[in-house]
Write a sequence for this structure.
């Protein structure tokens, strides 16, 4: 559990390294003044209220949509998506 | 009011032009253009729709205002059966399985989509150079960038290739290219238009935004696209804005501007002088102008990019080549993910994903990400306070004129900092309109949340004032 994950692994990008330009932005955030460091102001989030949730029903996609989803498969066999074998580590 | 939509509507109704000729002429212009604005043309679809409009007119039927009006779509929106590439290698052959709500509403109103427009890949950029389709060239000077990320959309409108275009604005991506190409570009209040079918960049600030050559066309298109959508639960009900409401700006008594934006060393002296001259003209009309305090530009830019990168790292994690996209097979599943993403994402996109994962990591999240959220709340509080004192906030769109093509790619930090005047309003989720007046890259008019109508009113007022 305590294994250290580097940004290239977290990002699934081979050889990825933190960028100097982006680090300068982060330095600026660290040095900015803030108040109540752990507050989260509920007035500014866009969460939906519980009585305004959409119906919890399954909506079947139209056939045209399903066909395009299959067309977009990177690798297909008999109408099924082919993926690499999952290796447990 | 000046309006290309009304003008073309009359020409169609009076049978001065056919819709087929209108659409074909614009398609020809798009096809032969050298500004790199086109990712794909929707010629067959557009001409089919045009011939239906012609048939209705021939039968003596009335057509609605948007029927037959040609428009463009930034290539980050879904339109069923057409390519949606996000200007990326990863999605260069990806076909939209469904249609975005905003685009569907325009189709239902009869507007005709002509083109999927070039932009920065996944919206990652301020110059429309981060694209596999070649840098978009500015409409006025082709040595300069078009701005971004909705660069192709702004140039198409400026060059009259489309009557209006639908861009996407996360931190200024509609307003800045509108300013760089001297057209109008609106970022509505967050949630006014559904984001369903807009590829997510930073979900908490992503907005659908129209670009057009006049205020009336912006109003028409905004009204059509607005409204609550069950497929985007951050949307809200909004009232349609009438033309007569836009004509009367008497209620606007006080305008504010951020002193530190104008006194900054980063602003070009001419942009500063032109902005202050505009302020004097507004004062001369009897409107009170107040100087306001605001956050430093580097704090605004850092807060915005920290949150946007965190959100994009999360949103783009689905792009691994498993279900769709240009998969490159590796030795195993994880290897396939990382080769696909390494080879198919641009340098700028990778920079933002890595930055996002950095700030979301243990050890970084408290001092950077959570602090960014806290700063965002302070910024929003600051706006709430300001709008108790002023009706409108006026700002330049950019501190400088557009850079030369090639310069932004060499210096990402300079590109990020060039967004200093647009990102604050995004973090506040406020309605902001770029108008092609006042400075070389225009002015931004901002009102309090949900008050998009006031923005259009003031824009109409400024049309004859400055």
């Amino acid at each position: 559990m305590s294994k250290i994950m580097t940004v290239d692994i977290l990002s699934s990008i081979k050889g990825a390294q933190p960028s100097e330009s982006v680090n300068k932005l982060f330095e600026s955030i660290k040095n900015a003044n803030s108040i109540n460091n752990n507050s989260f102001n509920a007035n500014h989030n866009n969460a939906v209220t519980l009585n305004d949730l959409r119906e919890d029903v399954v909506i079947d996609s139209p056939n045209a949509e399903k066909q395009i989803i299959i067309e977009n498969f990177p690798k297909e066999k008999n109408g099924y998506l082919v993926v690499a074998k999952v290796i447990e580590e | 009011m000046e309006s290309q939509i009304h003008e073309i509507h009359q020409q169609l109704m009076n049978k001065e032009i056919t819709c087929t000729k209108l659409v074909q002429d614009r398609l020809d212009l798009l096809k032969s253009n050298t500004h790199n604005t086109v990712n794909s043309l929707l010629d067959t679809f557009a001409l089919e729709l045009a011939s239906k409009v012609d048939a209705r007119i021939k039968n003596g039927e009335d057509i609605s205002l948007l029927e037959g009006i040609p428009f463009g779509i930034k290539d980050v929106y879904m339109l069923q059966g057409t390519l949606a590439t996000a200007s990326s290698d990863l999605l260069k052959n990806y076909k939209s399985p469904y249609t975005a709500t905003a685009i569907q509403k325009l189709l239902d109103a009869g507007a005709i989509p002509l083109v999927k427009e070039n932009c920065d890949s996944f919206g990652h950029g301020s110059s429309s150079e981060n694209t596999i389709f070649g840098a978009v060239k500015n409409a006025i000077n082709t040595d300069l960038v078009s701005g971004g990320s909705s660069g192709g959309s702004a140039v198409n409108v400026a060059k009259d290739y489309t009557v209006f275009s639908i861009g996407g604005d996360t931190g200024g991506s509609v307003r800045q290219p509108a300013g760089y190409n001297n057209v109008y570009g609106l970022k509505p209040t967050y949630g006014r238009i559904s984001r369903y079918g807009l590829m997510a960049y930073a979900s908490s600030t992503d907005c659908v935004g129209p670009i057009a050559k006049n205020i009336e066309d912006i109003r028409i298109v905004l009204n059509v696209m607005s409204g609550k959508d069950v497929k985007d639960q951050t949307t809200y009900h909004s009232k349609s804005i009438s033309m007569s409401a836009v004509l009367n700006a008497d209620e606007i008594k006080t305008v504010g501007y951020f002193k530190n934006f104008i006194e900054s060393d980063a602003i070009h002296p001419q942009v500063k002088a032109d902005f202050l001259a505009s302020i004097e003209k507004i004062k001369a009309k009897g409107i009170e102008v107040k100087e306001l305090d605001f956050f430093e530009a580097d704090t605004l830019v850092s807060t915005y990019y920290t949150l946007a990168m965190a959100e994009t790292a999360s949103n783009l994690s689905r792009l691994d080549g498993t279900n769709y996209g240009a998969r490159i097979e590796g030795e195993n599943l994880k290897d396939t993910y990382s080769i696909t993403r390494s080879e198919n994402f641009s340098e700028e996109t990778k920079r933002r994903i890595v930055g996002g994962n950095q700030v979301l990591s243990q050890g970084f999240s408290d001092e950077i990400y959570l602090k960014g959220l806290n700063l965002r709340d302070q910024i929003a509080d600051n706006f709430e306070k300001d709008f108790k004192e002023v009706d409108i906030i006026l700002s330049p769109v950019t501190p400088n004129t557009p850079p030369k093509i090639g310069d932004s790619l060499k210096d990402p930090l300079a590109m990020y900092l060039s967004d200093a005047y647009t990102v604050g309003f995004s973090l506040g989720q406020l309605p902001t309109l770029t108008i092609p007046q006042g400075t070389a890259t225009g002015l931004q008019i901002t009102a309090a949340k949900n008050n998009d109508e006031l923005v259009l009113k003031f824009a109409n007022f400024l049309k004859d004032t400055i």
Q: What stands out?
A: Chain B touches chain A through 72 residues (CB under 8 Å).
